[in-house]
Amino acid sequence: MMRSLFAGVAGLKTHQVKMDVIGNNIANVNTVGYKSQTINFSELMYQTTQAASGPNPETGRAGQNAKQIGLGVQSAAITTNIELQGSSQTTGNAFDLRISGSNFFVVNGGDGNKFTRDGSFYVDAAGNLAMSSNGYNVMGWQVDKNGDIVQDNVSKLQILSEANMTSPAQVTSRAMMNGIVDKNDPQVLGDGKVVNIQIYDNLGYSYTARFRMVGTDNEGQYSLELDKLLDSNNEDVSSKYKTSIFTGSTVGTNPVPVAKAKSYGLADGWTLAADGTISSTNADGTARSLSPTDTGTTDVDGVNVRNQDLYAQAWGFDSYEDLTRQMVYNYTSADAEPTPTSLASILSNGGRYTTLDTSADPAVTKEANIFDTTKKTLNVDGYRKDAGTALSVNYDQISGSLRGVGGGTGHSFYLNIEPTEKGADNPFSMNSAQGDDQGQPGIRIDMSNTSNVNNERKSTIGGVSGDDQGFGTGWAVGAMTGVSIQTDGKIFGAYDNGQTKLLGQIATAQFSNPAGLEKTSDNLYQATLNSGRFDGIGVDISEDGGSMATGVLEMSNVDLSSEFTSLITTQRGFQANSRIITVSDTLLEELVNLKR
Length: 596
Fold this sequence. Notes:
Blueprint: H1 3-27, E1 37-43, E2 46-50, E3 67-70, E4 73-80, E5 88-90, E6 97-99, E7 104-108, E8 113-116, E9 121-123, E10 129-131, E11 137-143, E12 149-156, E13 166-167, E14 174-180, H2 186-189, E15 193-200, E16 206-215, E17 221-231, E18 241-246, E19 256-265, E20 271-272, E21 278-281, E22 287-290, E23 297-300, E24 303-306, H3 307-314, H4 320-324, E25 327-330, E26 339-342, H5 343-348, E27 352-357, E28 364-369, E29 371-372, E30 377-384, E31 390-395, E32 402-405, E33 412-419, E34 443-451, E35 462-465, E36 478-485, E37 490-495, E38 500-506, E39 508-509, E40 518-519, E41 525-526, E42 548-550, E43 552-554, H6 560-592
Parallel strand pairs: 14-34
Antiparallel strand pairs: 1-4, 2-3, 5-43, 6-42, 7-8, 7-11, 7-39, 9-10, 11-12, 11-38, 13-36, 14-35, 15-16, 16-17, 17-31, 18-33, 19-30, 20-21, 21-22, 23-24, 25-26, 27-28, 29-30, 31-32, 33-34, 36-37, 37-38, 40-41
């Protein structure tokens, strides 16, 4: 049988496979995220009828090349053009994402993690971000209790969960007074210039703290008076709350105690005893204990470190001296002036000290412990002086700038609000505030941006919640009004109280050989031995310069002009191979016709 006949058959089959690849490319010319494929041919095999020979000096004959007859063609490789970006299609849908670079979205439909370039997403009934084409959940990283992204094993992103639909309220912890106090302003010279500051409690209820700036007989000195506290209905709630203003935590005559003016948390892994001793377990399983009165040392990486320093570091201090700089005050009677006692002496007494209980009538002394074993906190009590309803505000008569508040050089003061009912919960407690405001004795109000200059008898001083960077404003409970996705895949919720909240981050997968991924269906890929494995965590797309664009989809990267050109060459190749078969058949027919 003629070898050319089988070579032609191999050519037909191979060109048919190429036609299949081209047809699939053209069929997916409008498929989101589709990556085109190309096929390469290789020679099938050869039959050697005469091996090659070398020159023979004895006979003087030259060498001869091998005589080989090829037996056709085969498909060598089908390659996915994975690196070429497809064109962009604008959709306007906030959940449609176009991913740039060579990364892939990670999705999961219950059968393991898959990968895709198809960013047409939607939010299902459970609030999960998912692929609109097949319902696979989009995978990413979650947010911890501090609002930070935790790059752990990817999990589904439930961005519209019940918890995310609202933004919790936050108590106001900072405020500012800004503007001009004109000494000739009739209001200042009369009943006082009214300054309102809107504040929120930790339940989200709105109040207005009303102050008055009143002139005095002393040039450049004014009396800042706390007039009243109004609720959201503009009704005076002074009978329900006791309000006062003061300047800091210094000790003076008849001080008023502020419970837990500062709290320090014990590091994870430690257990706290009532006497202040802390214990943990070493890496080798042995027990470890530290006491504030232990003056010994421990070898740490070849360095002798004081056990008291190790104790302080477990509480978040740099050294034991840093810890003992904190002070509390000891009372012996209700009439006695408090005397400062070093924290070191209290620690040596097992954390116990005597303090004045002003809530009792008459005031009595009681013993307290600075260690809270339940919450694992070190609570240091502070005291304030001159708490009342008025403070002096002094301005320099040369520059007009603020000289000090409350008789000192500080430019801020505190507004404290407490329930008049004994034992009632305080909705203005700073313990619910975020950041450094936690544990402070009241709302810190900064007056450094006020001045005492001529403004044509008109004062412009006014109040605003929050500091000059917008922190500590406080806010009411907010309902979600929208969701946005940043270029790095972080998802934020927007709320009608003006706040935003980080809801999660879309993770991406990166492979050393993305062309080695195996196409499955529904615009999905799965990892193979030649693509490299997915580690279960993924990467932040911004780490290698990639990004995500919202409202845009990546279309197919199929080039129709190239595909139609390939159609022509494939058709001609198939046609030529079919001629090989027909001509070979004619030769065989002649051979059969030799005997007639």
